[in-house]
Each structure stands twice: as structure tokens, then as C-alpha cells.
Amino acid sequence: MSRAPSTPHAAAEPGENRRAGLAPGPRLGAVIAFVRCRGLLRATGVALIFALVATAFAGQRLAVPEFRYLVDFSVPVAEVVPLAHAVVLATTLFSPMADLEQTSAQPMSRHRGVYLVVLLALALGLSALPLFAGATGEVFVSAARNVIGYLGLAMIGARLFGSGLAWLLPLAMFGPTLLLGVRSDNTPEPWAWSLHPSSRTSAAAVAIALWVIGACAAATGRPRQTERAEQN
Asked: Are the CB atoms for 56 and 133 separated by under 8 Å?
């Protein structure tokens, strides 16, 4: 009685099925590629270092070097470090596949919009770490407001000058705020929104408006010529 020939392909099917089950689907693979090409993990690691520094010095305050008046004004370190979070995370706005994304069959504005919300949530999470070291809720609210506003400025800067100069507008705002942002009565100037207490709704409104403007510009804008040049 003859035996049926063995079928190695049939025996290999379970293993192949397991590998196929572990492999990411097309949609998940596209998301992973979208994130990896922007260097989000690297930027998150760098921002986490700044967040840990802010946590270690959560009880310390930074004196504002006001040049115009002899005032004694200071802000918690945890309210200043969000500037670093915004600048570092803004480096992920550049994509080396910008031209490919621009010619994608699916509109990328929605994907970029979701990515910007993820960046915001990540920045807020990093700003919340000093709470574990005793920072007050008021400090966190001010830090959250500042990271929202400076991230918005970074996104506007990336749209205007290219992602390589996304840091320009946040630092251009932060420098004058430290040097000229306090009045003679030891209170912040109206335009120095990042120095205002957490209860000041006008400062929060400015920060939110900056983020909305920056997110709209970053999500809907076409790749800049300078960003195409960076790819070559």
C-alpha cells in the first residue's frame, strides 16, 4: 500500500500564519513609518531628560533677569522647562518623506492633525512629571499653558521658516519675556503671557490661540521648498 507524499508546505502553514499574525497590517505599518521617519522616539527621550530635570528641581524658582527695573520676580523652574519640551518636539515636524506624503492617495492633513494632538498630549504629560515631586496644581496649569503656547509658536515657526528653525519663534518670545516682561510694580507685562499666574484667563487664551493657529498651519500646509532641499 503506497503512502501519500508528504506536503511540507502544509506543515509550514501554521508557522507562516503565526508570522503573518505578528506582522503589522498595512494601516499600522503606515502609522509606524509616519512616526519613525519623524524621529519621535528620539525627541521624546531628549524631552524626557528635560522633564526629569524639572522634576528634580520642582521646588526651585528661576529669577527673571529684568533689565529695566530693580524687581524681585521669579517663576518655578517647572514653568520654564516646557519651552524645551516644545522646541525638542517641534523637531519632529519635519518629514524626510514630505513629497511622498504630499502625493499620497489619502489626504495627509488628517494624519498630521492627529499627530499634532499626540505631540500636545506628550508635551502635557512631560509637563506633569514635576507633580510627582511636589509641584502644585497651579504650577502644572501654568506649565501646561506655556507648553501649549510655545508648541504653537514652534509650529508657526516651522511653517514660516522650515522645521530646522522651529525653535526661532519660541526663543524670540522667551528672551524678551525674561528681560523685559516684568513691570516696575513687580507684575508681568500684559504681553508676557508665560509669566502670568495660572488664574489669568487671557494668558491661557493666548496660548490656546497660538496652538490652534500653529496646528492649522502645520496640518494643512504644503511641504516648503527648503524642506525639500533638506532631503537631498
From this structure: yes
- Say whether 14 sits in a helix, a strand or coil: helix
186: cell is 513687580
Whole-angstrom distance, CA of residue 218 vs CA of residue 93: 8
Provide long-range contacts, Cβ within 8 A and 24+ apart, for 132-136: 132/55, 133/55, 133/56, 133/58, 133/59, 134/58, 134/59, 135/58, 135/59, 135/76, 135/78
Please state whether 73 falls in left (phi above 0), alpha (psi between -120 and 50) or beta.
Answer: beta
Low-confidence ranges of the chain (pLDDT < 50): 1, 7-12, 16-17, 19-23, 105, 231-232
Q: What are the grid coordinates assigned to 156, written together?
A: 508657526
| pTM as predicted | 0.77
Reading the block at residue 213, the C-alpha cell is 493657529
